[in-house]
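Quick one - inputs below.
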Amino acid sequence: MSARRPPEPIGPYVIGWAVLLLLLGLSVLAAYQPIGPVFQPIVHFGIAATQAAIVFILFMKLRGRPSLKWVFAAAGFFWLIFLFGLATVDYATRSGFPLQ
Amino acid sequence: MFSGRLQEQYTDSAQQAETAQLGMWVFIATEVMFFGALIFSYMIYRVAYPEQFRLAGHETFILLGSVNQALLITSSLTMVLAVRAAKADQQRALVLLLAATAALGLTFLGVKGYEYAQDVAAHSVPVADYIFKPGEHRPTEIFWCFYFIATGLHAIHLSIGIILVLMLTVRAAQGAFSPEYDAPLEVIGLYWSFVDTVWFFLFACIYPLGRAGP
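Output:
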């Protein structure tokens, strides 16, 4: 039979959950504000990225061991920069897009 | 599905568990690129047809999307608490939390199914059954193509997660996990929370559009 260890505190997880729900509420609220077509995606994708960061760091324990997982997690986003960057250059330099 | 036995290539169970976690992170990195490409294609067309995307987004059901996001956020909490329960050797809590996680995932799929039914009733199925609302033109169908492909792929990912969590629930009920052996819980927990984060971005793509008027 395995020995019991004191359980890790539940507080940070519950706080993280509450903050995620608050951010969801904020996102819904922002959807009904006339913030303009430029700021609209910035606000909503900003909230989504903040929520994702909370889940990655707190729920997926990106802080803890093994620390090598930082490299693995960062690699995905690193290649995403190439994907977004080069594809953006392609579309930004095309003539005749979008098709009329 | 998983063997609790220490495999010969590892020095101890901690190293074996860390390797399993790193393997899941590699998989998640590929998933980031998979969904990243999908969302990038959405952005290209949103920039190209901003007004049409605004009109199409207005027809989506933000309440259902929000309820579903709350369900997924809560399921990520129950999943991480399940891992915590295993580490503290709280067997009954472990089984209950895993079952709650699967139930929340199934509820998400139920709400999503209801939402799809509403979309079909509103004739918002591109190509097959699409009625243009006032001001709408062909590019609105691009938005709905993205909507069904992205949410469909997400639902497939979540379904796989539900099956895995249900398998973990059965094994947990048989007493398979302990503070010394919780690697499968950690690894499936990573996958589950990642699928949760994908929904944050799909939500931002789909639901806030066209709510604040022109």
